[in-house]
Amino acid sequence: MMDITKLTAYETVKRIKSGEIGVKETLLSYLKKIEEREDLIKTFILIDRDRAIKKAEELDQLEHKEGLLFGLPVAIKDNINVYGYEATAGSKILKGYVSLYDASVVESIKRENGIILGKTNCDEFAMGSSTENSAFFPTRNPVNLEYVPGGSSGGSAACVAAEEVAIAIGSDTGGSIREPAAFCGVVGLKPTYGRVSRYGLIAFASSLDVIGPLSKDVRDAALMLNVIAGFDAHDETTVDIKVDDYLDILEGNIKGKKIGVIKEVMDFEVQKELKDALESSIQKLKGEGCEILEISIPYLKYALPSYYIIAPSEASSNLARFDGVRYGYESDGAYLREFYENTRTEGFGDEVKRRILIGTFALSEGYFEDYYLKASKVRRIIEMDFENAFEQVDALILPTTATTAFKLNEKKSPLEMYMTDIFTIPVNLAGLPAISVPAGTDKAGLPVGVQLVGKWFEEALLLRIAHHIEE
Ligand code: GLN
After folding, report:
1. CA of 415 to the centre of ligand 1 (A)
2. DSSP annotation string for 286-301
3. Does 126 sit in the ligand 1 pocket, CB within 6 Å?
């Protein structure tokens, strides 16, 4: 008998539509897998079996099987609002807050008849690279349970890798889709800033946050992008430009395309197997007729310091709204100020507090010019570095991370954790689209990821190139 949970999202929808498998049958196969594996991996904060089954039964009754995701179970990162479900963003301070509306991406998934199966674990307010910062529990890497799945969308990456769901949604502010995708051996797509609506995403750093899919292969990422991409009147930063049919363009050739290899990447210490994987991906591209060029992004190494001023600054402002009055957790206090203080002291975890403090400091009078303004200038220079690069090439290739997954509790200082994102953060600062695709394993059997970066709003070509190098 066929194991439905082995199918890609694309194949699943195709088979449901042809009548080969049923919607409820599909859902039950996934629920069974979840039952077998979830105790060990712990990817979900919330699973709603009943609501999902009811929806599946409804869909099975329909005569016309319409919608790009017809009958497909989808998991959503817990920092994205799904009507009627608690949305905690991995934080105690949002415990008890139930969403009053669907995020635009969720609305799109429902419109295409996808089934929301549950909410996935993440680092608190998406701050982290391992999902160890979740206020509730850490998620484990399905490939090896002693290792982290990456973060902050660790739950979304792990549930796809564990075959508990065919596709999941995450968010990426500095690498939170691509890094866990690389660590778990799945595909992670961060679209161009402005390509996908952020309406209903609990904001971390609004000028950097992007929503995107974690999937088994590039075709599934293209399928989901077809569903979620496009202008949204609810999010003024979405851009009203043409959305391609990303499934349609996948197969075309990439002959003559120019691919840049970033010289400065090798200034960092990169694990041998990751260098090898990069090299073999480059060879594949050559084999497809691509031209490989060396490119310089001189300010690459300043991306991390600039990000760790800009992201905390925006976070300190975005998180000011969590005061115990409007959302979720509330403490007590004789006076309003005491009530705020107690709520925030008890509700936020250490990493979130660290960022609020850094951000508040960087934005305060007398320091603003030295920190926030300077970081913003560096950000602009990095963007110009990429602009120059893309005058010469169609896409860039680099490792997603400098190492494969690390063990739980292995990173001892915040800085060590921050360093995980050296190759993903520059991309967010520039707002570019990027994708991490699996490229083999290291000698411990842990997945290796290769990252491709495309021009602004050229996800079509990016996906096509990625499709050519995926294993
Ligand atoms: N790890 C980075 C951080 O902690 C990026 C997180 C993200 O992309 N949400 O900020």
Report:
1. 12
2. HHTTPEEEEE--TTGG
3. yes
- Which of these, 169, 181, 175, 189, lies nearest to 108 by C-alpha position? 169
pLDDT tens digit string along 304-353?
999 999 999 999 999 999 998 888 898 988 889 999 999 999 999 999 99
Q: What mean pLDDT is predicted for residues 202-216?
A: 98
- Ligand 1 pocket, 128 CB below 6 A? yes
Rounded distance from Cα 4 to ligand 1 centre (Å): 33
Beta strand 187-190 pairing with 434-441? antiparallel
Indicate if the pLDDT at residue 217 is higher than 90: yes
Sign of CA dihedral 174, 179, 181, 187: positive
Of these residues, 104, 129, 134, 152, which one is catalytic?
152
**pLDDT tens for each residue of 35-65:** 999 999 999 999 999 999 999 999 999 999 9
Is the model's pLDDT at 2 over the cut of 90?
A: no
Q: How far apart are the C-alpha atoms of 213 and 364, rounded to whole Å?
A: 36
DSSP 8-state symbol, 2:
-
Atom of ligand 1 nearest to the CA of 311: 10
Mean pLDDT of 140-166: 98
| Domains contained in the chain, CATH given | 1-471 (3.90.1300.10)
Task: Give which of 111, 155, 135, 183 is closest to 420, Cα–Cα.
Answer: 183
| Two structure tokens written together for 13 | 């929808």
The question of whether 176 is a catalytic residue gets the answer: yes
Q: How many CA atoms lie within 13 A of 155 on its CB side?
A: 33
Question: How far apart are the C-alpha atoms of 5 and 165, rounded to whole Å?
Answer: 7
Amino acid at 445: G
User: Using an 8 Å Cβ cutoff, are 212 and 186 in contact?
Assistant: no
Q: Distance between CA atoms of 36 and 158, rounded to whole angstroms?
A: 14
> Kind and range of the H or E element at 29?
helix 23-41
The predicted pLDDT at position 471 comes to 67
Q: How much is the average pLDDT of 206-214?
A: 98
Closest CA to 184 of 402, 405, 30: 405
pLDDT at 334: 84
Q: Is the CB of 168 under 6 A from ligand 1?
A: no
Dist. CA 359–CA 315, nearest whole Å: 7
